[in-house]
Amino acid sequence: MSKKRGLSVEEKRTRMMEFFFEKKDVFLLKELEKQCQKEKGITSMSVKEIVTSLVDDGMVDTDKIGTSVYFWAFPSKASQNRKRKLLDLENRIEELDSRKKSLTESINKAKIGKEESVSRTELLTALSEKRTEKSQFMSEIEKYKECDPEVVEGVRKQAEISKDAANRWTDNIFSVKSWIKKKFSFEESVIDKQFGIPADFDYIE
């Protein structure tokens, strides 16, 4: 024989709520563990977990008096909770219906002038062709970018800046060579050889 299947968490929750509604009374945890196991088939070890989950969901009330913790749930409160939840759902449905109506109106407005037609199809085809042509033209322009007067002028200015910088360094090198000659009485050819300076080293014209 197959083993009897145990109750699921949801089944235990349902049976415990039935227990509270039938008894219409207040209980200690120990009383719940004993009576729920006997009358509803909920094992005593799982009673605390189930009643805690029901308290967390606002379905069962609890209060501590002295050192004792009591639990209760009455049908009247459950009915009020259901009514409040139903009202919340109805308000939500009304809100969603209103939003749906607004979105439908927006979609219908957006469709005006965009109905499928021969002329619209032709215009969209022409637009696509023009975009392709533009892309091709941009590629051609990119090929001749080096001949662009602005690009050429930019290169010229950059070359001028580079030349000035090179000549400044040439100035510095000549100054250092002059100082070495005076300080150590070295021949210029010796200095050039020592520091790897070419014989034709000079300013850039």
From TrEMBL:
GO cellular component, one term: nucleus
Keywords of the record: Coiled coil, DNA recombination, Meiosis, Nucleus
Coiled coil regions, renumbered to chain: 79-106
InterPro entries the record matches: LZ3wCH, Mnd1, Mnd1_HTH
Leucine zipper with capping helix domain mapped to chain residues: 151-204
Domain Mnd1 HTH as annotated: residue spans: 16-75
One GO-annotated biological process of the protein: reciprocal meiotic recombination
A UniProt-annotated Pfam family: Mnd1
GO molecular function, one term: double-stranded DNA binding
Subcellular location as annotated: Nucleus
Domain of life: Eukaryota
Family: Belongs to the MND1 family.
Function per UniProt: Required for proper homologous chromosome pairing and efficient cross-over and intragenic recombination during meiosis.
The protein, known as: Meiotic nuclear division protein 1 homolog
